[in-house]
Amino acid sequence: MTRRAVVIGAGLAGMLAAAALSGAADEVIVLDRDDLPDGPDHRKGLPQGRHAHLLMAGGLAAMEDLVPGVSMRRHLLAAGAHDIPLGSGMVALTPEGWFRRWRHDGPHMLACSRALLDWAVRTAVLDHTGVELRQAQVLELTGRDGRVTGVRLSTDGGDTDLDADFVVDASGRGSRVAHWLERLGVTGIHERTVDSGLVNATRVYRVPEGAERFPLTVVQADPYANRPGRSGMVMPIEGGRWMVSLAGTRGGEPPADPEGFLRYTLGLPHPIVGQLISGAEPLTDVHISRSTYNARRYLEKAGDWPEGLVVLGDALATYNPAYGQGMSVAALGARFLGEEVRRSGLGAPGLARGVQRGAARSVDAAWAMAVGQDVWYPQTRGGRPNAADRLVTRYSRRLTKAATGSYRAASALWDVTSLTAGPERLLHPATLLAVLNGALLPPLEGPPLTAEERGVLRGLERASV
């Protein structure tokens, strides 16, 4: 008897889920309503697609386990992604001061456009598994007796049902899964939204000659200053380009016009982002996105979760993109799905509920990090700091301050933000001691640049005059 799995959504989460299922199902069909590009081009239905995305070490490690016979790290680097060590390859100003650049690299992350990442993952899955991709609009789930049995599709010839032994909803932020579940008798799904009003503004530039090796540069927002947060990033992407993404919470939004965009960068807590791009050649207009709120569906808490259905990726939870963890959480969820399917088989009783609960664990850490900071912005909607938030924030700020001058504290922070370790890493005795000791080196007065990098920056400033 043929066992069929259906995945709704051909984005990153959907393709990775399809790869996870490919070894257990005889047939895996991915459904997407959009006509997907043949190359690394932007697609519809991805509001954040034109803005900066970072693939953290934990997410990359999960990807490495998912596609048979493919090293996703090598695959992405060959496609043009940049390998960035957190310890030495990044210049970052935090609310607690400048991070140092250490001789030890720490975890690595990959930087490229989201268009390249999605295309590279999609081609790897399609080329190395038996997964089939179809363009189709999913109307609802079908099911009976506490089990999802497939999906209902809209076609030119009318609505039709596609039966499946297992369904994954990875249809993204706009998923209608709560409505679909209600039609199957599953009600009471709790949802929460925390919205700082963040606006992203992104423009792509040609990397100036001589600046090809300039490190990824970040000026972080300060959630604790009782004013709108403002941040900026210069991120190397494929094709000899810089992706420059600005972000501002409600009341501090970046503008869409080129002149205002540059003024905004120069007005950040440090002008380094503006200094870098003031003499660079712009290749695109400024692209704006407002789909940046944190939203979560607590599906793991449903009392009568149906067999045969799992929800992953942005359909389960989305985060303020400033924290860069959404893609990695999706990959971790897909890996957990693959592990459980291999362990117990596609038709095992309770499989879907177990996977849904397991996927929630990786969501918990990212959600706590994003919401725990966003609630501090003065015009955030959906939450204000409570006693627990204040306690956690007090500790995390001390940890970040220590990390500006303590390698041990910085290493713990990297591990957690990279999703290579859980939040318990922050309570390890060695980490607690590092926080207690604080920064062992004096604070930096400016960005930690090499002599060569300072020369590049001076040259770019002269070129802009």
Automatic annotation (TrEMBL):
Residues 5-335 form the FAD-binding domain. Keywords: Oxidoreductase, Signal. Residues 1-24 form the signal peptide. InterPro entries: FAD-bd, FAD/NAD-bd_sf. This is NAD(P)/FAD-dependent oxidoreductase. It comes from Streptomyces cellulosae. It is an enzyme of class 1 (oxidoreductase). GO terms for molecular function: oxidoreductase activity. Its EC number is 1.-.-.-. The keyword Oxidoreductase applies.
